[in-house]
Amino acid sequence: MSTALPRSRPALPETQQRAVRRGTVLAWWTLGYLAVDTAILFLIKGNSQAMQAAWVQDLMGMVPPLAFLIGMRVARRRATTDHPYGFAQSMDTAHLAAGGALLGFGSFLFFESSLTLVQGTRPDIGLFSFFGHDIWHGWIMIAFMFITLFPPLLLGRLKMAPAKILHNKALYADAQMNKADWMAGLATIVGITGIGLGFWWADALAAIVISLDILQDGYRNLRSSLTSMVDAVPKSLGTSEPHPVPGLVNARLAALPWVREVGNRTREQGQYFHVDAFVVPHHTAETTADDLLMARELCRDLHWKISDVSIIPVRELPPLLRVDTAEPEDTAPPEL
Hints:
The chain has about 325 residues and is mainly alpha-helical.
């Protein structure tokens, strides 16, 4: 029941440390790849709406890895008097900014592409001369977009494992966006091919499909970040199922001989949890400060995600508390 500031977070377990290192390296790889990709796309996109949409998507694709890198850096700062809970929630703030940016640019791109389709603006993809031969510029676009189908798909798959180990929403959203980028690339190829076959509207339609993909990414990022910031019940990453850690805390406290009933409120702060555990003792008068301190330390040591625990003795549980005391089948993080 101490009112002191939360203790400094202990060093992460080795598995989580490897996940942080791998996620950081992959985020930098993503930024490097996208920097080269967007530069080339800018040079070859021409008047194609689909190519311009793909360029915007790759440009906005830099936001999630930047959010992860900045959020992780700020989250490492120690708690202060002005910020007694520390800075772990900076990850959610960065995640929120990424989602808002994606939604804004996706909406703009959808409006512009739809206007082009309604007005019937026909894209002009010309020819260029290569050693005396005239070559359609669209072939260069298609070849480049085909090559760029594979890096984001690979990066997305590689990021998924560390994202799940760390329960890191920013890295998980970045991985999902990478995995979806190949669909945008494929839509761009279809749109440019349509222009070559005489279907001018295929280009604008492909751009609309890409803008819808950006909007979906933005909505998913925004919703995921807001669930943490409004203190919703923590969910397992990528699912609607409750995270097992609150149930694990309940089970550990319920096993103590002096505890009759238990429930907790768990607050998600970035990739860490702060737990307010309410316990109803069998005999209130016999419950000592040592009992509460021991219970607190037991809970803190249950899982690396638990940043701090408050043990609150009560005569009856507050309403709406989760009272699931079943031991989770598997609370150990997966290995890389």
